[in-house]
Amino acid sequence: MTRIRRAAAATALLLALPLAVATAAPALAAPASATATIQASVQLELPRPTGPFGVGRQLLHLTDQDRTDPWVPSAGPRQLMVSMYYPAKPGTGGPAPYMTPEAARLLLDAKVPGNTIPAELVADTRTWSRTDALPQHGRFPLVVLSPGFTMPRTELTALAEDLSSRGYVVALIDHTYENSGTTFPDGHTTTCVMCGKFGPREDWANLDASRAKDVAFVLDQLTTRPHPAWRYARLIDHDRIGMAGHSVGGAATVPTLLSDDRVRAGVNLDGSMDYGVPATGLKGKPFLMIEHQMDGGKDASWTDAWRNLDGWKRWLTLAGAEHHSFTDIPLLAGQLGLPHPPTTTIAPERGIELTRQYVAAFFDLQLKGIPQPLLDGPTPGNPEISFHS
Predict the structure, then answer these.
(1) DSSP-based three-state secondary structure for 266
(2) What residue numbers bound the domain in which 85 lies?
(3) Which of the two ends of the chain, N or C, has the fewest CB atoms closer than 10 A to its terminal CB?
(4) Is the pTM of this model over 0.70?
């Protein structure tokens, strides 16, 4: 979330799976004996969603014929893969895989130097969503999720599944050429063309703005009448749309809220806001900021944003966490036997639990109008969370 963290994320190919981005962290590598044990016995698994609904999942391949890919113009129109999660009837559909083996291999090779962990272990991570499950009846708020730079969309699967189980449709976007690997329906997998290519703050602001365009296009495809791109688009309540993201994905909520009146509320999970909140604010839209606790002071972009925000706002800090504690990554790394950054004291499961609680509370308040005392101030049940005033 700080400039150092953001820069570290840009050079993530040199770092290990749980990205210890507050410092120049050493690479992680499991000993050969540990790797052999991992290969023989481990079954990776995400935490169970906490809501009353089953979770369905469908994959969308979308092509923006009106926009040339900003990073690889020779590729032609911008193409995106989106995982759609939705409230579903329990017991319908089939198990949804976590990711493709090739995308998993690219992720492991990028994050674990000298990697010998079989890609299938990550690809076969147990999820709680079901492919092509029958949807629940009704209309539900939509939350768009955007992952961190260099990271595939799957890093936010646990959050996406939980939101859907609580009564949300979720569009989880892979931003092509900005992550370790995106697999398309024809079987080809793109790589991180842009890794290591962003330098000045203006570069990152342009990346945030590009993601806002990706989000706008996805919303166009999901809400266009009478022929939306998704089979179950009827589930979406067009008047209740929000966005959340991790790292750069969280930072991209700012240009999205400024440019797209369909998006009513935003959450930034630990992302430096290089596309800054202007002095005029975010059109009064509510905004939640959650950071991991660190040494060395606050990110100036967060301090500026906090001062300029003109609607409902909260700034929370998660003690004992690191940059990826809001995602699946530390959980999977721990299950693989990889060490955590030495400064991390919060358990990966707890990081996911708290992220789910506060993100869901925010959207329940802002998109469903349900009062949320959890957001009013510190609570004894969550001593890791502090409120900025």
Answers:
(1) strand
(2) 3-26+34-387
(3) C
(4) yes
